[in-house]
Write a structure and sequence with these properties.
By secondary structure, the chain is mainly β. The chain is 11% helix and 51% strand. The chain has a 5-stranded antiparallel β-sheet, with no helix packed on it. Strands 3-10-9-5-6 form a 5-stranded mixed β-sheet, with no helix packed on it. Residues 1-17 form the signal peptide.
Length: 244
């Protein structure tokens, strides 16, 4: 598993005059690992004594203020730390799909105002699970705890069978998705492929091949039993006619 290295030397900056704001470069959280975003304020003219921050905040792209110099209390998995006139650090302990997006650090000060932005994304290896349904003429695939609102597509060779499938999507309280899709009237001994398509990424991120093997033993037994009963009846009827 990879882990993001969050060093402030990897940063994006915005400069106004002799004042600059630096933020952490775009961050990837692997499997909901905690992420930390730094916003540092610096002056290049050395006149720190005359410099005063009047407002410093982290804002989500929807213009929602996550934290600021006056709002640093921990809220759920969100934690902020402010160092006066120097730094505002935002930590998201358990990132979920709602936390994906662009984050903006905005500064207002005695020397003017500026901002800089960065991005947060989540990545976690996605797995498709086959659901076995004995006695049913269909095949089902499921994707659990996906960070993306994706869809399962079905194929037999190069033929797209998605239009013949049914699909149900559930969204959990943590913002993750579970997708269940069933392909009806699938044929025995055929190989099918179910692949998880994510429109936002415009690509498939998981795939699984399935060979259908229906259990026809019970049907065979039932047919043999009925045939045997009919044969005995015919023999008995024939014997009765001969005796007459």
């Amino acid at each position: 598993m990879q882990f993001p290295v969050l060093l402030f030397i990897s940063s994006v900056s915005a400069v106004v005059g002799m004042m600059s704001v630096q933020v952490t470069k775009p961050v990837v959280s692997y499997c909901h690992q905690a992420i930390t975003l730094h916003c540092n304020v610096s002056l290049s003219d050395g006149k720190d004594r005359e410099f005063q921050v009047t407002h410093l905040s982290w804002i989500k792209e929807s213009n929602k203020t996550i934290c600021s110099e006056s709002k640093t209390a921990m809220n759920g998995s969100i934690h902020c730390q402010y160092m006066p006139n120097k730094q505002l650090v935002l930590t998201i302990a358990h990132p979920k799909s709602d936390d994906i997006g662009r984050y903006i650090c905005k500064l207002r000060s005695s020397h003017g105002h500026t901002s800089a932005n960065t991005n947060v994304t989540l990545e976690c290896p996605q797995k498709i699970v086959q659901i076995n349904e004995d006695g049913k003429n269909r095949v089902t695939c499921k994707v659990e705890r996906s960070n993306h609102d994706g869809r399962i597509h079905w194929f037999h060779g190069t033929v797209n069978l998605t239009s013949q499938a049914t699909q149900v999507i559930y969204r959990a309280a943590d913002g993750s998705y579970t997708v269940v899709s069933s392909l009806n009237n699938s044929s025995n001994w055929k190989t099918y492929n179910c692949s998880y398509w994510v429109p936002q990424l415009e690509q498939y991120i998981a795939s699984k091949n399935i060979v259908m093997e229906y259990n026809t033993q019970s049907k065979t037994k039932s047919f043999s039993s009925d045939s045997c009963t009919g044969l005995v009846f015919c023999l008995c009827l024939l014997w009765t006619l001969i005796q007459q």
